[in-house]
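Q: Got a minute? One more chain.
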Amino acid sequence: MKKLLSILTALLLVTGFILPARAMSIDEGIDNLRALWSRGIGPEVNGQAIDYSYYSPVANGASRAKKYPLAIIMAGALEGIVEGYELTANGLATWTADEYQSKFHNGGTFLLIGRAPEENYHYWDSKSMAISFKAAIDDFVKSNPNVDTNRIYTIGWCLGGAGSLHLATMYPDFFAATMIMCPSRDITPGEAQILKDKPVWLMGCKKDTYVSYTRVVLKSWYNLKKAANDKSKIRFTSYNEAPGVTLAETFPFIQNHDMWTNVAYDMRSDRPEYKGEKTINGNGDRIFSPSVIKWLNAAELDKNADTSGKLPSGAYLFYYDILKDRTRDMLMKVILNFLNDFGYIDLPENYQFKKLINSR
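A: Always. Here it is, folded:
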């Protein structure tokens, strides 16, 4: 219980929902990049409509005569607690900069960061969320004819890593490639079979105190390697150490968990906080100076790919979609109540967590 409380507290901290002693900026000028993004919302499916932040290269000067990729991004827990926070809670807005846009196929890419409606206790690791989010993605693609439907990618970390896995395996004929960082659950053998002809990039850190490197990450990599028909299409990045999650740079909670910031800078090799980084393909060949964008550019939807496989059983998803969700909800209420009462956070008066806490 103590470890789970620390983990959930850390998730609150990393998203900024707990107010630190000093505000942290991911990158100088990133707010200017975020100002180029817009907000959207998908149709209601299963009683929920998923809202999101998005960037359009066409709306920002790119040629309307070209088609551009679409990168779907799914963040970790508590990056969806407030509308728009899914954009400001992480650094993937760096891909809005010309430096990165110019690297993509045809010189630009659409970016869409979905918001899990966590105020209603819905998280990306739920299968039902994938259905609702897919409806929002379909609606976005229909409204943006410059999206190259052969180059749609899904990228996620932690709970969003499980969400990215859900999308890729539930709709394998839609996504050209998927990136899964420190996923909250393992990739099952049946899911690996669905992805056997797909480019998949998995990431994990050996010292991650939230996601087990052995039980989740290595198990997933083993299943991917065993299933892959072309092992050069799959990649695995491991770290000895990665940035952790702290409160006001003083109290460490989740350690060695942040891999997405390195992706936000396209795996820039001069970031000293990432130690022991090693990327290999399914054949075990070392890949030096790996570029996420270059890898994505090489991926194009293969309509003849064999996507036969098996989604997780109902019993398996019952554990991840129901039992873990309910446990997380209960712990979240306890933690938020404690932190609010002792002045570590300041819950908005109209926020649902506050209402639930006050109604007990």
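A: Residues 1-27, 247-251, 353-360 have pLDDT under 50 and may be disordered.
Q: Perfect, thanks.
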